[in-house]
Each structure stands twice: as C-alpha cells, then as structure tokens.
Amino acid sequence: MTTVGILGGGQLARMLALAGAPLGLRFLVLDSAADACAGQFAPLLRANYTDVDALSEFAQRVDVATFDFENVPAQSARWLADRVPVFPNPRALAVAQDRLAEKSLFVELGIPVPQFADIVTRADLDAAIARIGTPCILKTRRLGYDGKGQFRIKPGLGSRDSGLGHAKATVDSAWAALGSQAGTVGLILEAFVPFDREVSVVAVRGRDGQFRAWPLTENWHVDGILSASLAPALVPAEIAEAAIAHARAVAQALDYVGVFALELFLVDGKLFANEMAPRVHNSGHWTIEGAETSQFENHLRAVLGLPLGSTHMRGHACMLNWVGELPDARAVLADPCGHWHDYGKSPRPGRKVGHATLRADTVAELAGGLRAVGNALGRDDQVAPVLARACLGRA
Ligand code: AMP
Questions:
Q1: Which domains does the chain have, with CATH numbers?
Q2: Does 350 contact ligand 1 (Cβ within 6 A)?
Q3: CA of 147 to the centre of ligand 1 (A)
Q4: Going by C-beta distance under 8 Å and a sequence separation of 6 or more, which residues neighbour residue 322?
Q5: Which of 53-67, 179-193, 213-227 is the least confident region?
Q6: Centre of ligand 1 from the C-alpha of residue 148, in Å
C-alpha cells in the first residue's frame, strides 16, 4: 500500500486524493486547519508546517511527499527531503516561491518577462520607477497569491516629484502599503503588461525527465482571482508551441517532477512569463473531464515514478470558478456535458468553494452551453469574456 503525503489540505489535495483512489493510493494530509477540505477524503494531521514533531510523524507515515500549497517553508521541505522523497524538489519549490528568483531564472532561460527590479529601500523604488516607468506593479516577492500583496502604480496625474514622471502620492501609498515587507518577504517592481490575453501552460514532468503539456489554456481573472478558463486557448499554434517550449525549459532547469503551471501574458502576439506555480493549478481543473489524463492523476503518476498518461484533450472545455459561495448545481447538471465540483467548504467572500466544467466537441456547442448556464445562474458577466472569445473562433 503506497501512501502519498500532501502538505496543505485544500481543494487541490482533495482532488489529488480523489484522483488517487482508483490507483489504490492512500493519502495523509498535513494542514493547520481542522476543517481543511481534503480531510473529508484523507486522514488529516493537524499541525503547522514548521512543527518538527508533526513533520517527523508525517515522514514516517508516507512513502512520498508533495504539495497542495506552494508556500510551505522551503526549510520544512528540505528537512522532509532528507527523510522521504519530496516532489517537486525543495530547490524548485524555493525558486517558484520567490518572484525575483523565478523571473531571474526565466531571463537566464531566454524567456521574455516584463521589466522588473528588486526593491529593498524606498530609494530603490524611485530609481526603479524612473527606469521602468508607469504603470507598474509593486508586489511582495513571496507569500502573495490571488492578487494579494500587490499595489498598482498608475501614471501620475497630479503633482509630480522631481523629474521621476510619476505622482509622488501614488508611490507614497504603494510604499505605505508594502514597504514594511521589504525586509521580510521582499519586494519586486514589475512593468505593467497591457496584455491582450492571459494564458497558462499546465505541464507534467516525470522522474525520468519525460515532459508532457496539456493544451494551452486562456484565463480570465476578477479581482486577481481566476474566474474562467478556456481550453484549448484559441491562439495560433506557434504561440501555443512557444509557451509550451518555455514550460519545458523551466521544468528541465529545475529538474522538476510533478505538475506545474506557467502563467504568461500575450501582448501583440508576444509572450511574457508572469509566474510559475509548483503544483497542480486552478487553470488545469478542466483536465478532470476534458483530457485523457487529469492533472491530478498525472501529478500522482509523476511523483510515484509511474508512466505518465496522455495529456490529449477531447474537444473544448471551459471551467468556471465559484468564489464566495456555490450557485445552484442544477443549471450545470442540466447540460449533459456539464460537471460539478463542490469542495465541501463553508462559504466566505473571496474563497474558492467549487467549480464547474463544461465540455463540448465544438466551440459553438461550448458557447451554447455556457450561454445557458450563464443565463440560468444570473452569471452572464462571468461567461461573457469566454463567449466573446469562443464566438470569435480561432484567432
Ligand atoms: P499574479 O499574482 O502575479 O499572478 O497576479 C495576479 C493577476 O494580476 C494576474 O493574473 C494579472 O491579471 C495581473 N498582473 C500581475 N502582474 C501583472 C503585470 N506585470 N502586468 C499586468 N497585469 C499583471
């Protein structure tokens, strides 16, 4: 009997456990929350990620360890890796946890990125804004997610400071909001990319180095949180191929094992890498019903050293995230190719509580299903950008 240990017990761990059941796998989830939703399907070890006694028990009870949460302290990951196989490896985790380290790696690999600068002091911020210009975004290097820990600096309209070409008041606000974190989680300033589209590569690399990617996915965010994903992204084949080549290069450079996502901006036909997530990813949830092998199953296969399944997809798929509270499932279940996922969480503003995936053989059918679901749920706004793209067809 093989037991997979998962650090973090949210919906990703829950979907990993569900995907692992047919493979005969057992799971152990470590999370500090008593109501961690993966605990409904797997034994839950309740502790902090830095609790050495708990990590020690965890290491004794599992055959391999992986993550549902990328911000597990890298030190805990290294401690575990001395006792049990850990995938992805702690170095890959550490790079992906740090926006500066991951952007530096992208640059090393020749992957285009928005201009960026490491920010330690207020003077660094002024100098970086003078170089990069506005609009730009000040972000925490570590521990930010779903748009948290970010401050957008718009071009100045009011009084300008000496020659920097931006409103001092805006920069003062940015520094007031995030400056205190410069010495702890660190800060990075990035040029704002006026993107046409946001896309992601969800890919998997096995212990033997075999690499597979699912078709490129287009994503829409609301308030920094993923709202909808469409696969395959309706972009020219050479753009999808270039994005996947970037993901392959990153995976090789980090000797990465498991599933990860590389998020990119598309602007005027050019790709810029934003960030990578060292885990199964929200923009890959459609693979559960839309692909030959889901991201969750392939992640388990990868970390266990099993052969990887095909990432081929059938037709087209759209995933809609349910944030805050669940709508009525019946509108989705009324579509014969509609699939419902309830994460078993209590409702809370900004919390991901479930998702739905619609699948269809053609873009037109998918658009029809989306329109019906959007109408029935009063969520026309959520489906509108996907419909606009789907109705335009292939770019
Ligand atoms: P992140 O946490 O970096 O994924 O940022 C959350 C969202 O903010 C992204 O999905 C984008 O919609 C937006 N965003 C982040 N960085 C940039 C950027 N440099 N230029 C434009 N939009 C950005």
A1: 3-86 (3.40.50.20), 115-191 (3.30.1490.20), 197-392 (3.30.470.20)
A2: no
A3: 7
A4: 352, 353, 354, 355, 356
A5: 179-193
A6: 10
